[in-house]
Amino acid sequence: MYAVEKKYEIEMKLKKEMMNMQELKAAANRSMSIANDVCNVLGACEQRLQQLEKAVLPLYGDTARLQHIHQNMDRTVKSLEHVINYYMVSRELADLIQNGPHTSTTEALNIYLEALDKLAEAQNYFNKNNPQSVELENINQLYNTGVLKLEASFEELLSRNTRPLSPTTLMDMIALEEDSSVDSISVSGSNSTTVTSVETMRAAAAWLSAAGRPPSGPLLAIRAPAAKNSLVAFKDYLRSRSMAASPLMRSKNLLNRADSTSRRTSKIQKVLEKRAINIMMKASQTLEQSTGLAIGPRRSINDAYMEECSETLDEREVEAAGTLAAAVCRIARREQRHALGLVPLPRLSALLAALLKDCLGILATEVERACSRSRKAASRCSSSAAACWALLARLQKLQPDLQRALHPAPPAPYTALLQNCQHHCIRSLEEWVEGVRNDGASGAVDGTVHQLPVAALAYCQALAAHLQVIGPALNAEPAYARAASQITGVQDRNALMLSIYFRKVLAQLNLSLRNKGEQYPDALKAIFLLNNTLYLLQGLQRSGLLDMLALSEPDCEAGYRRMINDYKNTYLQSWNKLLSHITLDEPLPAKLRDKDRQLLKDKFSSFNREWDETTRAQRGYSVPDVELRESLKRDNKAALLPPYTAFHQAHAHLPFSKNPDKYVKYTPMQISTQLDGYFDEAA
């Protein structure tokens, strides 16, 4: 039963599959028929398309040829228009070029520059394609005219906006350190270039530079005299201000106001001068007694006044030269800012060097003049000789500013000026020492402090203020370098160099003082050397120079103290002559003989005479230092009173004369009292 059912099922499936195959065959026949129909249609379409292609392809070729012809015609028209413009440019731009550029605004100038560009383009066209064209001559003539008018307008605009700086403006520029502040002053403070004018000039200069005609010549011709005039006016301003402030000029102004009664007033003036001298003498005595400070030798008021005026003028001359150098740097930086954008950068440094040539020449002359005055001051041993080092320090400080202004070109004239100034400074050091050696001023009659130690201390103090400048300069000198190489253990090379020079100055000063002391008698010579040596030692201690001097001369303080003790002993030895009058070779007998009485008379008389002369002389000696004065008084008492007291007590009561008061004039108390009065009258 199961097999029958299975067979039936298989037969049914077979029958169904047979029916499906018949349907598939029928569908395949239909599909084949449709495909044949489609192929027939496509074949017909292909034939028709081939026929259409044969008809259209020639038309496409004709169209492409027509388009190419049209493009060629367009290019030809444009080229003709371009060429026609070259032929018409001279006629179109003639009026504009002949009228010249309008420099009121940058936009108006750009119109003129565009016209010149068109002419330049036409020039290039005709030079390349038709050099023999008559139109080229017209264009060349018009172009050259336009360039000349542009250069003239640039020069006019530059001249209109170029004014010399006023001295007060330059002084303000020197006082200010910030560049922005300087810019504001240089624009508004001196009626200089406005922003519109700057833009206009830069546009014109850029075009001229691109055309191969940079405006270096006009800039040099216009800006250089303005810079020079600014510096000359500033120099005259400094000089007038310096002269007006000098004591000598004030006195001259007062003298110029004298009327016809000058003869009558001259007597009054002499009386007033005499009274003034007396007042000054008393004031100096009071000052020295109260402070122990010496105010120098007794010079006339006129000499002191003239020396003060000379020193003031020297210092003001040097200060003016330094200020002038600062003005040159400010002018250089101002000109650099002004020239930026007006000339190509490769030409800028050469232009600035040429523009500042006259200014640097003026500065070199003033520096030479100031250094010459300092050297003259050094030859006369004036403390103002150190002012040249202040000038050198300021020039070195200003050098980077000038280098930035002239970059990348090196400031060769300024470098030469610096080297020349340093040479003068080095020479001034040696001339100061030579001036000490050749100083012919004699000492004061009272043996007070000479003017040389006073000047030497002031000079050394002034030099110490410029240690960082003097040290390297001396280090470059072979003699000082050799001397420094023999000293070890010193860290500060600059201080060592200056210490070596101080040692040289003080050694020559000590020698000169000893030579000047030869004009005095023995006692006053010792007082003179004692006063000056103590003054030097105290001055070195007060100023702190002694520590610097110890770098090259470690035992300098001990040496000065030994000298002071030696001079004290020398002074005390001057009493030996007086003591010899109260010294007996052998004791007198109890009963005086005639020759014994005569011997005592001679001893007392000689002592009295010598004592009177010595007292008159030494009352006029000057010992300004209070401590030294009192020390000498104590030493005098220790040297004189014991032997005189012993002599007086032993022989004053003896009957060697009927009139003993004639010979025994002074008691030990009177001698002590008179010794207390020594050095007071001239102190």
Automatic annotation (TrEMBL):
Keywords: Exocytosis, Protein transport, Transport. InterPro entries: Cullin_repeat-like_dom_sf (IPR016159), Exo70 (IPR004140), Exo70_C (IPR046364). GO terms for biological process: exocytosis; protein transport. GO terms for molecular function: phosphatidylinositol-4,5-bisphosphate binding. The keyword Protein transport applies. GO terms for cellular component: exocyst. Residues 391-676 form the Exocyst complex subunit Exo70 C-terminal domain. The keyword Zinc-finger does not apply. SUPFAM superfamilies: Cullin repeat-like (SSF74788). Pfam families: Exo70_C, Exo70_N. Belongs to the EXO70 family. PANTHER family: EXOCYST COMPLEX COMPONENT 7, EXOCYST COMPLEX PROTEIN EXO70. Component of the exocyst complex involved in the docking of exocytic vesicles with fusion sites on the plasma membrane. This is Exocyst complex component 7. It comes from Pieris brassicae (White butterfly).
